[in-house]
Design brief:
The protein is of the alpha/beta class and 282 residues long. It contains 9 helices and 11 strands.
Length: 282
């Protein structure tokens, strides 16, 4: 007996209702992304096809994705991609899913027109380093990560985007050698260890290595401060993304390591989310 057809709108509503009952934020938007992925079309094209009949061939893979999304698997992992600064990057469990706030870090970094040499620390999937390389084709860009899995994803993204000017290093913070930089960016793990069990189930799908910043969330930032000062050119910039409530501690830390003009910059919600500092003389 043939399975009854359902309209695209009916399928979409059913998926959205299910995700809502599973506590997924923005269930309709999630359902739209998953259905567009299954059908191989852009999400906005769904709105032109609400009456399109969908049979079991389309509904079965959608049911599987919706079920998995309902368990807390991030949407980006199910789609295999994430959007960042207008570009599509591969995204999976090897690295942190890029957050919208980090786009603002890149926007700030691009306000330094004389940054001819750039280092991105804890690059993860490579969204910061690759975006900066694409937006500043004259700059020399390097990137580090302690995770070989994350670096493999970053290199795949470099290939996907046709970027061959970023040098990737598997390293604990700083790359080998003594080369210096005009700009160092870092979105380090900054979540206090004790808060990780209370994070949303979606965030807990990110690698623990990309989340855990130690007891107060500042372990890696405090380690980086003196190391980055040694590798920044005089007058070079350090640009950090930080957690909520960490700005004063981070600014005090940098003040003790030969940085000047230290300022906290807000995200779009007005939360101090980024710290900018300039290497002093001497």
């Amino acid at each position: 007996m043939a399975t009854a057809m359902m309209s695209l709108l009916e399928v979409l509503k059913g998926a959205s209702d299910f995700l809502g009952k599973q506590g997924v934020e923005s269930p309709r938007l999630n359902a739209e992304h998953l259905l567009a992925h299954v059908l191989g079309i852009k999400r906005l094209e769904l709105y032109l096809q609400f009456d399109r009949p969908l049979g079991e061939r389309e509904r079965e893979p959608l049911r599987d994705l919706v079920r998995r999304r309902g368990t807390g698997i991030p949407l980006q992992h199910l789609l295999g991609t994430a959007e960042f600064c207008g570009r599509t990057f591969k995204s999976d469990a090897r690295a942190l899913i890029p957050r919208p706030e980090t786009e603002q870090l890149v926007e700030r970094a691009l306000t330094y027109p004389t940054a001819a040499s750039i280092l991105d620390i804890a690059t993860g999937s490579g969204v910061i380093s690759l975006t900066l390389a694409l937006e500043r084709p004259e700059a020399i860009v390097s990137a580090t990560d302690i995770s070989p899995e994350a670096l493999s994803l970053a290199k795949e993204n470099a290939t996907l985007l046709g970027v061959d000017r970023v040098t990737f290093h598997e390293a604990d913070l700083m790359p080998p050698g003594d080369s210096t930089f005009d700009l160092i960016t870092a979105n380090l793990p900054y979540i206090p260890s004790g808060e990780i069990p209370s994070l949303s189930r979606e965030v807990r799908n990110d690698p623990i290595l990309a989340l855990d910043g130690g007891p107060d969330g500042l372990d890696l930032i405090e380690r980086l401060a003196p190391l980055a000062s040694e590798r920044l050119d005089c007058g070079g910039h350090l640009l950090l993304e930080i957690g909520i409530g960490q700005s004063e501690a981070v600014m005090a830390c940098l003040a003790g390591h030969n940085y000047r003009d230290i300022v906290a910059l807000p995200d779009y919600q007005g939360i101090p989310r980024f710290i900018e500092a300039v290497k002093g003389n001497g």
